[in-house]
Amino acid sequence: MNLSYRIAIRYFFSRNKRSFISVIARIAMAGVAVGTMAMVVVLSVFNGMEDLNRKMFKTFDADVTVTPSQGKRFQVSDSLLKVVKSVEGVELITQVIEDNALARYGNQQTIVKLKGVDSTFSRRGQLDTALIEGSLNLYGGNGTPFAVISEGVRNALTISLEDILTPLELWYPRTGTKTLNLTSTEAFNQTVIRPGGVFFIESRYDDYVIAPLPVVDALLQYNGQRSSLEVKTAPGFTEKQVAKEIEAKLGDKFTVRDRDAMNADLLRAIRVEKLFVSVTLSFIILVAAINIFFSLSMLAIEKKKDVSMLYALGATPSLIRKIFLAEGAIVALSGAIVGIIFGVLICWLQMSYGFVSMGMTTALVDAYPVKLIWQDIFFTGVIIVIITLAVSYIPARRAALSGQTYVA
Fold it and tell me: Which Gene Ontology cellular-component terms appear in the entry (predicted)?
């Protein structure tokens, strides 16, 4: 072991007999431990929130979405579908029409996001984990169309799946009409459909009604046009990789985005918030580590004779500085190791048993999500090393200078 660390360890254990300096050192260790534990836990919670949001997106959003660069709709041709299908990694292509519409059920009405999908939608199996009642089938045995509605729409319209007599009415303004009387039924296209299933993910998806593509096409008068193409990637291919290849083949007439790009703003907000919290907790650890500064300063005063003796034996100022830097490192790293152990333990308990609830229920999780990433623990360790060097350098330098003065 290095001589400076041998002496520092001896000082660390021997000074515990001194009450005041010992108390300050223990306060510094406790402060670093608590700050480190908090950073590990909080960063893991942010990782869990990011992971949870990705799971939510995956439950509803497609792996890759193709939309027109200009306008809301575009004509889908066999040649266009052939180009997209030719991209390696494309497993399924779902044609989609999506727009706002008025939904009525009995005496209740509300604005919904109406999403028309073709038969490939059910083969994607995305809403399976979010289904809370009924079925995801958009067609009955006799070809009767059904709608899959969100929990928010069901609550807003007080829909009962057991009521087979009351249909769900969908209204959409007619195009090409000269009438200005929007209170008249003549100004709207109308269709009726029976609710067949209810899903719940979280509030951002609470206004969706999913219906068969031909029904929505006729209601919205898209005449074969589509809002988007949703692509399911094959196993072994990443969404970004497939999206880039589709974009390269389709050119600038279409915007191609993977799932993360579709939700980039929310993911970016989580990362920015995580960064700011990391900086804040780093300052808290710095404040706690200030006690190391005072502890080393008083230790330097107490050990003046020892330092002078070391100089007399041939020690250099560099060795003295290293001794006190090592002393600060022992105090800080002891607290950091304890903090990391407790932080990891708390995260493991939360992941295993979910002691802390979110206070709300989603289809995916009910407790606060936590995800340990070892890079965060490494980052926390680097922060503590930097803070330790910052608060230990001045006392170590003063100890070296005071020892030289004492010898003189």
Answer: plasma membrane protein complex
Q: Quote the tokens at residue 205.
A: 């998806």
- What is the separation, in whole angstroms, between the first and last Cα of the chain? 31
Length of the chain: 408
The three-state (H, E, C) secondary structure of 127-144, written as one string:
HHHHEEEECCCCECCCCC
What sections of 61-150 are H helices per DSSP?
Answer: 78-85, 120-124
Residues 6 or more apart from 58 whose CB is under 8 A from it?
126, 259
Label residue 187 by pLDDT band (50, 70, 90): confident
Query: What ranges make up the beta strands (E) of 135-227?
Result: 146-150, 168-173, 188-199, 208-212, 225-226
Nearest to 126 by CA among 80, 91, 84, 87: 91
- The Cα–Cα gap between 322 and 389 comes to 11
The whole-angstrom separation of Cα 317 and Cα 53 is 55
Tell which residue, 403, 337, 358, 371, has the closest CA to residue 203: 358
Task: Report yes or no: 118 and 98 within 8 Å, Cβ to Cβ.
Answer: no
pLDDT digits (tens, 9 = 90+) for 299-337: 777 767 777 777 777 777 777 777 778 878 888 888 889
What does the CA dihedral 40, 44, 45, 49 come to, rounded to 10 degrees? 160
| Cβ-contact 234, 138 below 8 angstroms | no
What tokens appear for 300 in the block? 């330097």
